[in-house]
Amino acid sequence: MRLFIAIDAGAVEKQLIEIQLLLPKDSLKLSFTKSFHCTLAFLGEVDFSGTEKIKRALTSVSFLPFTATLGKLGCFPSMEAPRVIWAGLEPASSLEGLQQKVEGSLQAAIIPKQILSTDKVPFIPHLTLARVRSVLDSARALKSLNSISISPIPFTVGSFHLFSSTLAETGPEYKIIASYPAK
User: Fold this and answer.
1) What CATH fold (topology level) applies to the domain 2-181?
2) What are all long-range contacts of 10-15, with beta carbons under 8 Å and residues at least 24 apart?
3) At residue 72, does pLDDT exceed 90?
């Protein structure tokens, strides 16, 4: 099954949907995210034995609850060529610290190399709002994206989860396999 580790952002779902409504549908063809989370590690396809090993490894992650806040709007790979539109999360240092602890626990448990990619892009704490299927008017899209301001709305990060992801016709469906509270 396809697995990933993430922080659930359901506490700010209403605000994220409001931001989605501001995205430039006249200059971008968009596919909107229906479930909001900040991915700490994407694991890909993992068999039952590997899943059990990952679940055990994650029990060693220790962190204190902290407050995350919605930050600025951003895009991958860039605002000029958007493929993914996201809301950033602050403070990056707390989120990066948790992400490093999660990856460290997986490495300590000797999770296979194909799961832990060493040539990854740097971790940027974010919540995906939409995927861009096509750009209809790049200049207008850039102007519109740059005009969107996100209010700094705080929420408590008191746990993270191991999720499974199933690709369906209506988009990915996520299920929590295991939860790991702050300790």
Assistant:
1) Cyclic Phosphodiesterase; Chain: A, (3.90.1140)
2) 10/36, 11/155, 11/156, 12/36, 12/70, 12/127, 12/153, 12/155, 15/70, 15/151, 15/153
3) yes
